[in-house]
Amino acid sequence: MDGRAEFAYLANVASKYGMLYLAQDFEQFIAAIDGATLAELAAAYQEIDRRQDSYRLSRWLQHIFEERKPDFREKRFAQQLGQLFVLFEQLAEREISPFDSRQVAYIEPFQKPDWDNVPDELRYLIEPAQKYGGSLSEVEILKTLESGNDADMELLTAVAEKVRLNGHYQLLLDWLKQFPSDKHEEAKILYSLFGVMDHAGLDFE
User: Fold this and answer.
1) Which of 112, 1, 135, 16 lies closest to 56, judged by CA?
2) HSE of 190 in the Cβ direction (CA atoms, 13 Å)?
3) What torsion do the CA atoms of 130, 66, 163, 123 make, to the nearest 10 degrees?
4) Quick check: 41 and 13 in contact, CB under 8 A?
């Protein structure tokens, strides 16, 4: 599928608003959003919904991100569309219409994690990863931390300390070369746990 042709109706809005990555960027953008911008984003959202394109868009994005050597222009467009989905989610979180309908969103492919692939030395990470991991998005990571309590922070601190004392972060990185996070769900979940600990300011290296 030629995504740039199939989804050309989104090219303009994606190039204008698909450049936000950090949580603070989304916050600042939404805080300053005006009526014209909101209307433009809403029109794109509603057109995706009208065409029922969420699934097709999601699978095309997945295909592009999994390609070893994707076309630069297609990859750039895919990155912008991916961040547009994140922006839609952020607007939905603030109960802004029509985004709060949540009819348009990135649809994750279902992939069951195979925990048997995890080395014995790292298996203590599985339980906390199942609880706190799962997403590599900074926005989602920050939401995980914001919803946690003192007990959660104590557990994450203990995990980070065990990783540091045993030098297991390098072991994880070596393992990820065999089980990359974009192809193995268990690897993505484990690696995302480190994203949570990193954003919490914990030392695990």
Assistant:
1) 1
2) 29
3) 50
4) yes
Tell me phi and psi for residue 78, to 5 degrees: -65, -40
Q: Which two tokens stand for residue 76?
A: 């750039």
Closest CA to 146 of 199, 191, 192, 106: 199
Task: Dig out the tokens for 51 from the structure.
Answer: 């065409």
In angstroms, the CA 15 to CA 4 distance is 12
DSSP assignment letter at 109:
P
Taking the CA atoms of residue 121, residue 122, residue 124 and residue 129 in that order, the dihedral angle to the nearest 10 degrees is: 180
User: 56: which 2 tokens?
Assistant: 């097709």
Q: 136 near 181, Cβ under 8 Å?
A: yes
Q: What is the DSSP letter of 147?
A: T
| Closest C-alpha among 137, 131, 128, 145 to residue 201 | 145
pTM over 0.70: no
- Per-residue model confidence as pLDDT tens digits over 146-198: 888 999 999 999 999 999 999 999 999 999 999 988 789 899 999 999 999 99
166: number of Cβ within 10 Å: 13
